[in-house]
Amino acid sequence: xxxxxxxFRWTVVTLLFFATTINYLDRQVIGLLKPSLESEFSWTExxxxxxxMAFATAYAIGLLLFGRVIDRIGTKLxxxxxxxxWSFAAIAxxxxxxxxxxxxxxxxxxxxxxxNFPAAIKxxxxxxxxxxxxxxxxxxxSGANIGAVVAPVMVPWILGAYGWEEAFIITGAIGxxxxxxxxxxxxxxxxxxxxxxxxxxYIHSDNEVExxxxxxxxxxxxxxxxxxxxxxFGKMLTDPIWWFFLFWLPSYFSTxxxxxxxxxSLPLVIVYTATTIGSIGGGYLSSYLIRRGWGVFRARKTAxxxxxxxxxxxxxxxYATDIWQAVALISLAAAAHQxxxxxxxxxxxxxxxxxxxxxxxxIGGMAGSVGGILxxxxxxxxxxxxxxxxxxxGGYNLIFIICGSAYLIAWAIMHFFxxxxxxxxxxxxxxxxxxxxxx
Length: 439
Hints:
GO molecular function: hexuronate transmembrane transporter activity
Subcellular location: Membrane
Keywords: Membrane, Transmembrane, Transmembrane helix
CATH class: Mainly Alpha
Mean pLDDT: 83
CATH superfamily: MFS general substrate transporter like domains
GO cellular component, one term: membrane
Number of strands: 2
Number of domains: 1
CATH topology: Growth Hormone, Chain: A
Distance between the termini: 21 Å
Low-confidence stretches: 429-439
Protein name: MFS transporter
Helix content: over 70%
Radius of gyration: 21 Å
Strand content: under 5%
Number of helices: 15
């Protein structure tokens, strides 16, 4: 009978989960405060879309930079720098006195928050074999949903009790508590004294052992690899949809169904709770299929196709006659997105060596943010145009059609670039990767 491996790797996932929770809590505060800030600063939908765009632009640049930096300086230090930067930026919103000031604070927040996913995905690759990575990613990625669940309860309460400035200060300060535990508990497996030899052997059961001093790959080389482009287009077409769910759903429920955002919002809590189930369940599904003997590639691709199809019903939101019908359709789509997200991140760790992983995540994340820059401009223009015509819901209807079709298009493009499962070998002079043998 085999010795059971230890469980310290799940402590690592717990740390990543809470970091991602804080990341999304800080990110979503402005969406919940939007009606109050619109009143105080006389924002139009276009003004707000530009503030969102400032975040997305900085986030895109930051992903590109942080991905490279984390491959060079390591996960522990890279994550530390990222969290300190975004926590100070979140607090800085409280001192903004103009629309421009909010744009600057959002840009600083985007730059800092961009380190979260490159660091977290690299940590998962360092600590988990492939058969567990999607599940581990689904768990930590569900922190995004928990942050989104906590925010609609926490932020309105702080707003009512203290004011919008305190909402930014209190939520922004939470990250420094997490930082204490990160510094104490995180280290790569080879240097972590709390890890048993059995667990260390299990972590490296894919024969992907790399030196802790492995040199990072030349960044430009990654753009010549088709697996990079599969990840790029998959992120570019789907990340903006999630950003729409984060930044515009509160306003959608408020304007369409008269939801009072100054009180804890049950519809938003339900939507983001559903995404937690999607994130963990989506990661579990492909990991389960692999344990049942499916090839890694087949399991990931089948799961992602299922999740892409599950987003399509959101197109029917235009026919919703009450808020709970809309909640049901949007909950399904948002849950499917997070299931998709857990798997698309893991596809990168399936085909790229650990020494290049943060860079690839950063490149793909940047592409997602480019979509996040362009999509808010379209959303703001559509909503302002239809609002001026007295038909704001017409703008949302078009947006939901875009949301419903984006994932199937992304899946088809990813399949075009990677029709077969191939592990990238960056140590060879040729750029032709070798097929991965999946048992």
